[in-house]
Amino acid sequence: MAEPQEGPLLRTPSEQSSVGQPRGGSNKQALKVAGLTVLAAVLIAGQAFTAYMVYSQKERLTTLEHHSSRLEELSRRATVMRAPMKMALPMNSLPLLMDDAAAGEKKAPSTPPPKKELTQCMREAAGLVRIHLPSFRPRCDENGDYEAQQCWAEASKCWCVDKSGAMLKDSMVDGPAKCAKE
Helices 24-56 and 58-80 meet at what angle, rounded to 10? Predict the structure, then answer.
């Protein structure tokens, strides 16, 4: 049997015997091994944590995959079944289009029709002139005169007017008014 050693288990470097190789290198090697062990433990713990999170979020990931595949299917279907898009053309290009359509025909340059000045009825109907009744817009005929019957939908009232828009006496009624056409 081996004899039990007497004395401390750890000695300071000055107490160590200088027999054989110096023991200073073994401390560096032990630190390297300990560092690599800690690094390996952290990496394994990180992988375990990642696996746990993926497993716990499996239901949400499945739902996201389902939604993603559904969106891809809808986008493919939308490109195949898309209706032609209506283009908006600016009105100032309309004469150019008409010239292309009638390329064979030669006609004299046309002058634009003279601009018609807005009548009082047209200005009130367009909201350019303030009216005393809120949300009321008069109705005008093709000449710009007031129509014989005017109605205010908010109050369900109608009345008769002359061509200048003046209300005829005792003509306001609930519902349509019976106005004589002049």
Answer: 60
User: For position 171, which CATH number holds?
Assistant: 4.10.800.10
- How far apart are alpha carbons 53 and 156 in whole angstroms? 67
Give the closest residue to 95 by CA, choosing from 111, 78, 72, 81: 111
Prediction pTM value: 0.37
Give the residue numbers spanning the domain of 35.
Answer: 26-80
Please state, in angstroms and rounded to a whole number, the distance separating the CA atoms of residues 113 and 97.
Answer: 19
Classify residue 148 as exposed, middle or buried by CB count within 10 Å of its CB (0-12, 13-18, 19+).
buried
Q: Mean pLDDT for each 10-residue chunk of the chain (182 residues)?
A: 61 56 69 94 95 88 88 74 64 58 56 71 84 82 87 85 85 84 60
Looking only at the bridges linking them, the beta strands covering 157-160 and 173-174 are antiparallel
In a domain? residue 95: no
Tens of pLDDT, residue by residue over 53-71, are 888 888 888 888 988 988 8
Amino acid at 53: M
| CA separation for the pair 101, 80 (Å, rounded) | 32
User: What DSSP assignment string belongs to 21-46?
Assistant: S-SHHHHHHHHHHHHHHHHHHHHHHH
